[in-house]
Amino acid sequence: xxxxxxxxxxxxxxxxxxxxxxxxxxxxxxxxxxxxxxxxxxxxxxxxxxxxxxxxxxxxxxxxxxxxxxxxxxxxxxxxxxxxxxxxxxxxxxx
Length: 95
Known about the structure:
Blueprint: H1 5-14, H2 21-42, H3 73-79, E1 83-84, E2 87-88
Antiparallel strand pairs: 1-2
């Protein structure tokens, strides 16, 4: 599938992008080649191939869940505009 200049103009309009004449002509070729690659990839037989979330079998290294900061609740509530029963009072934003 190849795109025409009018297709690129329409895409740019929908995306609210302003592109120059030179850029638009370059995008016609670039986007057309991407779509051609997608067409080639759609022909590949993927039956029996399980989808994966990530291409690598990597395990996320997690840090220990430890408290590293001191409790400053009283300090922060002392400088808050409005506090009641240990809760911050904020203006109502949803009717």
